[in-house]
Amino acid sequence: MTPINHFYFPLFAIYMYVNYPRELRMNSSILHKVAIVHNTALVVFSAWVFVSIFQIIYKHGIVFEKNYYFNLPEFEHVMFLFYLSKYYEFFDTFLVYLSGKDPIFLQKYHHIGAVVSWHITYIYKVDCIWIPSFANSFIHTIMYSYYLCCLLKIDQVRKIKKYLTSMQLVQLVGTMLLCNYYYLPPVETYRNYMIICIVNMYNTFLIWLFVKFYIKSYLYQKKQLSDR
After folding, report:
1. pLDDT-derived band at 156, boundaries 50, 70, 90
2. Which of 11, 64, 71, 181 has its CA 20 to 30 A from that of 133?
3. How many other CB atoms sit within 10 Å of the CB of residue 23?
């Protein structure tokens, strides 16, 4: 078993993430360029993952069966890289710190939970991971494209910001329902179904955080403007 397959690997990564030296700063001009490269990389990678999973589904069909997709070498490869990308996404938070700001709890919880979720589903070969990975890579392609456009001063895209949060909520609720419905035992093993339930507990709190963020950022602000 490689080191990355051990549970201490994500625990160590999370420890480093939580204890990142927040006082570090970077020149704003350099930081802007780094952010552009970072977001461009995630746009390209997320799109590649989405297209790759689509091609696998197109070639092998939509099959709800234990270890069906993980027995495909191409799927195993894509899922491994997508799992690794959850560690790279920590840089979203590091860039916020480097700019002298503090990330919201939602962002930190989201990144930590994503690493744990993709770690246990990848290591234990929970086949339903294709559903959230397919949806998540699609959402991330749009989301990081939005961030990239903002960095490039394409201000027209700011109009879709609230719809990104709505799409994330639809993604979370939809993938939870699909995994719970189609991967009940005996389709999936009881152990792996328990893993699905653990991930769903993380997702449930994440949904609550997104709803709270949506209300505060869009509905509450809209009400304030209308009251003026």
Report:
1. confident
2. 11
3. 7
